[in-house]
Design goal:
The complex is a heterotrimer. By secondary structure, chain A is mostly helical. Chain A has helices at about 5-10, 15-35, 40-45, 65-70, 70-75, 90, 100-105, 125-140, 145-150, 155-160, 170-175, 180, 195-230, 235-245, 255-265, 270-295, 295-305, 310-320, 325-340, 340-345, 355-360, 370-400. Chain B is α/β, with parallel strands linked by helices. Helix content of chain B is about 45%, strand content about 10%. The model of chain C has no long low-confidence stretch (mean pLDDT about 85). Chain C is about 70% helix and about 0% strand. Chain C has 13 helices and no strands. Chain C has helices at about 10-40, 65-70, 75-105, 110-120, 125-135, 145-155, 170-195, 200-205, 210-240, 245-250, 260-270, 270-285, 285-300. By secondary structure, chain C is mainly alpha-helical. In chain C, helix 2 crosses helix 12 and helix 4 runs antiparallel to helix 7 (about 170-195). Classes of the chains: A mainly alpha, B alpha/beta, C mainly alpha.
Chain lengths: ~400, ~450, ~300
């Protein structure tokens, strides 16, 4: 290939690169938005879009208005009058709205009107509109505005310890706010506080690991039978199995809960493991049978001719050869159980898992929703790691389950 | 640090064991035990909310024969600081009787349903009256189960009674019929707090003509979108028609397509859909989250002048704007002209008549229970024992309005449950979007009949 | 024809199958029968559904709950929306995923690109609802905190209430669905594309076929079985779609879907809720038959 062709070929790929990168960007932007948001304070999140952190910050909103009305007396830095130091947060803090600023300005100072020149509009609405940027500038001047634009880890800390107090866990611990901190120790033991994400993380692991392994083992056994053993009603049973994939999970909740109550199994880990296994099985068997069934017949035939039993063929041939399917199924089941909300909510009421705990964190009036940003990201971490680590297997296994090999 | 906390756990275990050995502990000995529902934690020295509660003499707590070590299962919606308030309130009872409370928390009606049909909790706290309808065959009448119904106003008793049996009493109440505003804005703009409903209408018109949007409205609330609007309509009804009329909707005497309801919706439609009266007009009303709507009154610059919201709004305001001061920067006035107040509540139900369940019901409904509840400033209590015992200035004011109200009307949606509640919320959303009022209210009236039949 | 090697022992197959069969019977088969039974009873499962008929109203007797599930305006709206979801989202997701798989095949950073598309699969629906809150958020005035309206207003437009504006909101919800599921479709389709021998494609190119002809005449027919599998799986997933609607709009503003109706009624009206569930199962029967036939064909080919 001559150099010109190469350049042509590379140029010909520009639209391809463009399309791929554009699509990836579109896909990642929603998650990126949450990621950025999770490091912002609730005040900031509520007032400006997350993307504004990437834009140049407009410098000192309200400075022209401040200069026009205030700086002739108070000075450019607000410190000119010592008894009314506008760089002092305690002074500025008294005025939380442009309206209260207006009320103050209406009061005369030393018998003179507060504002000599220029005067504010006599219409209160217009005066308030004028004073709104002035207030913003005063808040910048006294250092309060910075706090809201800063990045913070509070959302994560609050989520981990499950804090729903007056402000945030760290500042409240520092200020020893009593009424809401009685369940907190303000030391490392809070990491495993019963309403936090730490303990939920452990519960989730306890649920997920057996609920992933159990269906895979059982499905491998059943899939082997469907693929390489003959028995009456094999096709009929497999057809039924395909149908079972369709049953909506919600309908099993009440009958199974009643059953568990009779057996004394309500809110036990065993109960939730079995439930996830039962509902995971149809798809798992379906996928595994397709994979094991597509293994070359000759391998099994020669094994039987050599006198191997079914059990040996299953253990020595089917299982190792089906490893890609097992791995991918494992990841699929893992993601499903990890992200499950409803089953855990119903069958594991006393040991909240991550998804359930996230719901517990938001109170019904939505006053703590900012914790959600941190909590949601904490719950992503493990599935993401699992997915990236086993991605290769996953792709292979899905293929096996869906396409006849 | 871990070592210390381990030692503390050991101490707590010892203390619990000691408490179990002594069936009648004297009040001065008990306070080391932590509420049974919590993982044992060390209380920082500054944590004092329990102090007011534990000062009361344990002698007035009736254990109803519950023995130390008896367990009591409780289900409620509370988590976090709310759950902690619950624990603070029941601590004297736990200390005095030695019972162990196993609490579970859920907000999901489906979870409640599953539990009741398999292993019902001994005592249930639930924010609506649907359990009366759904589980009347399993519920135990409260007055026969140790509760002191005499501490509650007759409106509450009637609400919780079905077929002559009292199944529900309000455990924690919230008052609606309040309008939140910024006193500074009102003063600067020359508005005064209205005292009659006509005044309120005039004020809203004046604000609108001044170019100030009077109302911040937000109906969005996920699967319950519309409930805040339904509350607003009920507040209007309390002003234009009165408590008996609203309670008539609950009992079925007043059909929801009655002319009185219609005219309330006409006012609501104007306020909720005209961009001069509400932030962003119809679209703004239906698309804004109810929590965000509260903040619209206190942002800089404010987007609206007033928001009709229950007591909880104070929490939303102070979380977002921690520097605002009560009285100058934010405050609430009772809905002008309302004859009686609209309330919501977490109701108390019993599925068991065990001694421990009776002890909790008796304690919660006693004067002492009311006092200890009020001392937490967690919410309002309909228990007569609570009046005058709030320690927070805002709660004291609200507590007085609440205790001296001419009557109580429950939010009709919470009282009648589904299908009425959902139909009502959907109608509110439709009306705010400018749809025909009559057609929508006819649909709600049909759902009202259905809900009443089930009761 | 059953391969000879499979004929070994009578009891053995059942030993392999029994644990799975027992669990599936308890957790899926038994609740399904319970569901069918409940769908013939009233709201609180006490009396026959026929007793809920109101005088002067149409009545389907014991099948009264099915009258609700099939004729109630709310249910009709839900059925219509589900149909819309299937008609738009199944082809939409597959075409998009196929397009991406074809393109990603030609870039060196293929794995990274595919991981990004697949990523939403690893996010729970509670998390996804938070993610999308910052895309679709609507403020009637002032600064926007949802990026879509942020872009719109920066370009001088008016903010749009994405989740409550009729028709648009259904597309917005579907977009979330596409975001969640495209990765799943893409990985399967991408693997199928890689399975087509490169020589065949090269041969066609040498014969003078352009890229579109290569795709239409050779690639697409070879991966058709996989496309069909993906389409049926997606159809089942979308028939059961619930999470997205429940957390984003709660079914308001004409976005109701079947599974959300079912969930809303679980507590208050067990009869109607279970009737909807049965309808949902029945709707999937054609797909089931289709899948069984495919299984038979595969068996015959072995």
């Amino acid at each position: 290939m001559n150099p010109l062709d190469r350049i042509n070929k590379a140029l010909g790929k520009v639209p391809v690169h463009f399309a791929v990168i554009l699509m990836c960007l579109l896909w990642i932007i929603p998650t990126l938005g949450l990621f950025v948001t999770s490091f912002r304070s609730r005040q900031a999140v509520q007032t400006t879009g997350w993307w504004t952190v990437f834009l140049p910050q407009p410098k000192a909103v309200g400075q022209p208005e401040y200069t026009q009305y205030c700086s002739s007396c108070h000075g450019a830095n607000g410190k000119a009058i010592a008894s009314a130091d506008l760089s002092n947060p305690n002074v500025v803090n008294q005025y939380q709205s442009a309206a209260s600023l207006l009320l103050m300005l209406r009061k005369p100072v030393n018998g003179q009107p507060h504002l000599l020149h220029p005067t504010l509009s006599s219409t209160p609405k217009e005066a308030i509109t004028t004073l709104t940027p002035v207030l913003t500038y005063l808040q910048t001047l006294s250092g309060q505005k910075q706090a809201s634009s800063e990045f913070t880890l509070d959302n994560y800390v609050d989520a981990i310890v499950g804090y729903k107090g007056t402000a945030d866990y760290l500042p409240d611990c520092q200020n020893k706010v009593p009424s809401t901190l009685a369940v907190m120790n303000c030391n490392t033991s809070d990491i495993l506080n019963s309403s936090g994400m730490g303990i939920a993380f452990i519960n989730t692991l306890i649920v997920v690991i057996p609920a992933t392994i159990l269906p895979i083992v059982l499905a491998a056994l059943a899939a082997y039978a469907f693929a390489w053993l003959d028995f009456k009603g094999r096709q009929w049973l497999f057809a039924l199995l395909i149908g079972l994939q369709i049953v909506p999970l919600q309908m099993a909740l009440v009958p199974i809960a009643q059953l568990y109550a009779r057996l004394g199994m309500q809110s036990t880990f065993l109960g939730i493991w079995l439930f996830h296994t039962g509902f995971g099985l149809p798809y798992a068997i379906y996928l595994m049978r397709n994979f094991i069934g597509s293994l070359p017949r000759e391998i099994f035939e020669s094994a039987y001719l050599d006198g191997a039993s079914h059990w040996a063929a299953f253990r020595r041939l089917a299982l190792p050869l089906a490893m890609p399917a097992i791995a991918s199924l494992g990841i699929y089941q893992f993601l499903w159980v990890w992200n499950d909300f409803l089953v855990a909510k119903v069958f594991l009421t006393t040991h909240p898992v991550l998804t359930v705990q996230i719901q517990n964190l938001i109170d019904p009036l939505g006053q703590n929703w900012n914790i959600l940003t941190g909590a949601a990201f904490l719950s992503f971490i493990v599935p993401m790691i699992v997915f990236f680590a086993f991605q290769g297997y996953f792709v292979r296994g899905l293929l096996a389950g869906s396409v006849k090999g | 640090m871990f070592k210390l906390s381990k030692m503390f756990v050991l101490l707590v275990v010892l203390a619990l064991a000691a408490a179990a050995c002594a069936p009648q502990p004297t009040p001065t000995e008990a306070p080391t035990a932590v509420p049974a529902t919590q993982v044992p934690t060390a209380m920082p020295p500054t944590a004092a909310p329990a102090a007011t509660a534990t000062q009361s003499p344990a002698a007035s707590i009736d254990c109803k024969g519950a023995k130390a070590g008896d367990t009591l299962s409780v289900l409620y919606q509370w988590t976090g600081s709310e759950e902690q308030n619950f624990n603070t309130i029941v601590k004297p009872l736990v200390d005095a009787c030695g019972i162990k409370i196993n609490a579970q928390s859920t907000r999901d009606a489906a979870v409640l349903d599953t539990m009741v049909k398999s292993t019902p909790p001994d005592v249930l706290f639930w924010p609506d009256l649907s359990p009366i309808k759904l589980y009347s065959d399993k519920l135990v009448a409260l007055d026969a189960d140790g509760a002191n119904a005499g501490n509650y106003a007759s409106d509450w008793i009637n609400l919780g009674t079905s077929n002559g049996k009292l199944y529900a009493l309000p455990a924690k109440s919230d008052m609606k019929t309040l309008i939140w505003y910024s006193p500074a804005q009102f003063q600067a703009l020359g508005y005064t707090v209205p005292t009659t409903f006509a005044d309120l209408q005039t004020l809203a018109d004046k604000m609108a003509s001044d170019g100030n949007v009077p109302w911040a409205m937000g109906l969005e609330s996920g699967a319950a979108t519309g409930w805040t609007g339904a509350d607003f309509v009920e507040d209007i009804l309390l002003a234009t028609q009165g408590t008996d009329y609203v309670n008539g909707i609950i009992s079925g005497k007043v059909p929801y397509n009655d002319p009185g309801v219609m005219s309330a919706y006409q006012i609501f439609q104007k306020w909720s859909s005209d961009p001069k009266y509400t932030v962003g007009g119809s679209t703004g009303t239906v698309s804004t989250n109810f929590g965000d709507a509260i903040l619209q009154v206190f942002s800089n610059p404010p987007k609206a002048m007033m928001v009709d919201k229950a007591t909880f709004a104070a929490g939303n305001i102070t979380k977002q704007y921690p520097n605002l001061k009560l009285g100058t920067d934010y405050n609430a006035f009772a809905f002008p002209g309302a004859q009686g107040v609209q309330v919501s509540a977490d109701f108390m139900y019993a599925f068991s008549n065990s001694p421990a369940a009776q002890a909790l019901l008796a304690y919660w409904t006693s004067d002492l229970g009311g006092q200890n509840f009020a001392a937490t400033n967690w919410g309002l209590s309909a228990n007569k024992g609570a009046a005058g015992n709030y320690t927070d200035p805002m709660m004291t004011t609200l507590g007085n309005i609440f205790a001296n109200a001419k009557g109580y009307a429950f939010s009709t949606g919470d009282a009648l449950g589904n299908p009425y509640a959902t139909a009502q919320w959907k109608a509110v959303v439709n009306v705010a979007q400018g749809q025909d009022i009559k057609t929508n209210l006819d649909t709600v009236a049909a759902a009202q009949t259905q809900s009443l039949q089930g009761k | 024809m059953v391969p000879k090697i499979m004929k070994q022992g009578r009891l053995a197959p059942w030993l392999y199958l029994l644990p799975s069969l027992i669990l599936m019977t308890i957790f899926i088969v038994y609740p399904t029968f319970a569901t069918v039974r409940l769908s013939l009873l009233d709201a609180h499962s006490l009396r026959s559904a026929a007793t809920t008929c109101a005088a002067g109203q149409p009545c389907w007797g014991i099948l009264e709950n099915y009258r609700y599930a099939l004729t109630n305006p709310e249910m009709l709206a839900a059925l219509r929306n589900n149909a819309l979801w299937i008609l738009l989202m199944v082809p939409g997701t597959i075409i998009g995923a196929l397009f991406f798989a074809l393109l990603a095949d030609r870039v060196p950073y293929e794995n990274l690109a595919k991981s990004i598309i697949f990523m939403p699969m690893a996010i729970s629906f509670v998390g996804a609802s938070v993610v999308w809150r910052f895309v679709y958020d609507y403020q009637s005035s002032g600064s926007q905190i949802g990026i879509l309206n942020g872009i719109l207003t920066a370009l001088g437009g008016q903010p749009v209430a994405w989740l409550s504006a009729p028709i648009i909101n259904n597309f917005c919800l579907m977009l979330v669905g596409v975001w969640l599921w495209a990765g799943f479709c893409m990985t399967i389709l991408s693997a199928a594309i890689k399975g087509v021998p490169a020589e065949i494609l090269e041969a066609a190119r040498v014969d003078g076929a352009n890229e579109f002809q290569v795709f239409g005449n050779i690639l697409l027919p070879s991966i058709m079985p996989t496309v069909v599998v993906v389409a049926t799986t997606m159809t089942i997933i979308i028939l059961k779609v619930f999470d997205v609607v429940y957390v984003m709009t709660g079914g308001y503003f004409d976005t109701e879907v079947i599974a959300n109706r079912m969930f809303e009624l679980i507590v208050t009206n067990a009869g109607q809720s279970t009737a909807i569930a049965v309808v949902l199962i029945v709707l999937t029967i054609p797909i089931m038959i289709f899948n069984v036939q495919r299984f038979r064909r595969e068996e015959a080919a072995r």
